[in-house]
Amino acid sequence: MPRLLPRLLKILQDAPQLNPARNGYTRYKKRVSMKKPVPETPSFTSAGRTHSILLDDANPITEGHLYDRHKSLPPRVRLLKPLQDTGEHDHPREMTEEEREWWSSPYLRMLASPLRECQITRKKLPCGALSRSSGTRAPPSLSGRTRTAYVNPNGVEHPKFKPRRSTPACYITCWKDAIAYATTRIPLPKISPNLTVPPLLPLRIGYQLRLRVFQELELLTKRLIVSPLDDPAATVLRRLTRSEWNVVRQTNTIPHKHAVALMVVPPVNQNPETKEKPQPTVQLDIADIVENDTNHLENSSRPLLPLSVLHPVTDNPSSPLLPNAQAPLYHGLSLFPARPQRAALHKALCKLLEVERRARSRALLASGSSEHETSPRARGDAKGSHAFLLCSNQHTARRADVVPLAIALWRLRMWDGQAYAGETSHWEVNAEWRLDWAKRMY
Question: Which of 87, 216, 265, 352 is the Cys-Cys partner for 332 at CB 3.0 to 4.6 Å?
Fold first, then answer.
């Protein structure tokens, strides 16, 4: 011990000092490829050999690790820096046009997410179709001697705003009506002892799913501020004109090939009692969430518009082997029932439109065009409507990633249950229990 302590003190003194500017965030290491050239497999026959294969410099028997094949680095959407010769065998490459088109599809990205087992259906499903929850212990003052653990959503929000806790967790189908099975079909003691399911768990998950939409909108806006608009086909968000919106309502089709979402979000009117408009607010208290849910149940006699409706995309080329492409139309009143959040959504979409408008003006100035100076003021049906069109293709992927926002909106559709009502083809095997429940609910 007398010899060990001085050495430990010296090691601690020579250790590098932690950077206090990191604020607790871990800086991830650069991804390194393990791919190396694999030697040619030698022949195991004795023909033409003067010695045993065990005496070779690199043989697959004693040095089998030399013949292991590793995956190469995944391609990147775009390479900002030219490649440098670092002596490595695997270099990052840029995606092809076809790969960028796959990358811009929210449905392919959801299907390509890691597989996890749903604790209710016992089926392996992509993480994009599941909601993650874990146990959180209550303070001793609230739980008495035995610290009771409650199931809380974990990993629903964006990790940049709320990091995911690395604790034992369970995955449940992203559907609010599936929480009723949580107490009977999930092995709660295996996740954490004394684990209970709080009655407000569906409201908390739905609230965090809506927060995720605002977080993705904020990140997308920040990314587009620094991304120039070199190609008009790379426009991410635009407002439909009144004539275009009338065509959508009359034909029940969205005549835009690369549409991934169409959001109808009118500005929130003033309160008839206070004569004031609600302040745009993203964060809500749990009491406000319960009050909004109670008001929604009390006013259920008035039929509200569905949260979303699927409309076919007419410009998509038809194929006898593939079904017609469809895009969801989201109604803002049902998507965000709380008036402050709906006002915040309208404000965030208008801010994103302003960013796109500035990028378009800078592109016209760079090209020397005077179109922005002679464009007349819109009148009549040429004015903008309350419908916001979100597009994603191989061109928008080079500017910003629109897919996380489309997935966040689609997960809200799944949480409401519309992704399971009226199914004609089962995307999940042995989903009869889900279909029966959906028929009773809808």
Answer: 265
User: So what's the pLDDT on residue 113?
Assistant: 93
- In order, the DSSP letters of 162-220 are SPPP-S-EEEEES-GGGGGGHHHHS-HHHHSTTEE--TTHHHHHHHHHHHHHHHHHHHH
> Tokens 């768990």 appear where?
201
Our measurement of the distance from residue 150's CA atom to the centroid of its chain's CA atoms, rounded to an integer in Å, reads: 25
Collapse the DSSP code of 124 into the 3-class scheme (helix H, G, I; strand E, B; otherwise coil) and give the result: strand
Burial 322-352 (b: 16+ CB within 10 A, else e): eeebebbbbbbbbbbbbbbbbbbbbbbbeeb
* First-to-final CA distance of the chain: 73
Q: What is the DSSP string of 385-418?
A: EEEEEEE-STTHHHH---HHHHHHHHHHHHHHTT
Share of the chain above pLDDT 90, in %: 29
Q: Is 137 helix (H, G, I), strand (E, B) or coil?
A: strand
Is residue 143 classed as helix, strand or coil in its secondary structure?
A: helix
Higher pLDDT, residue 310 or 4: 310
Question: How do residues 12-39 score in pLDDT, each as one tens digit?
Answer: 887 766 554 444 344 555 667 777 888 8
Provide the pLDDT for residue 83: 60
Contacts of 181 (CB under 8 A, 6+ apart): 120
Q: Residue 70: what pLDDT?
A: 83
Higher pLDDT, 332 or 146: 332
CA distances from 199 to 61, 73, 182, 351, 397 (A): 60, 45, 11, 37, 41
SS3 384: strand
Which one, of 333, 332, 325, lies nearest residue 392 by Cα? 325
CA separation for the pair 197, 184 (Å, rounded)? 11
* Burial 71-98, CB ≥16 within 10 A → b, else e: eeeeeebeeeeeeeeeeeeeeeeebeee
Identify the helix (H) or strand (E) that includes residue 246. helix 242-251
Work out the average pLDDT over 57-65.
83
The two structure tokens encoding residue 70: 């590793």
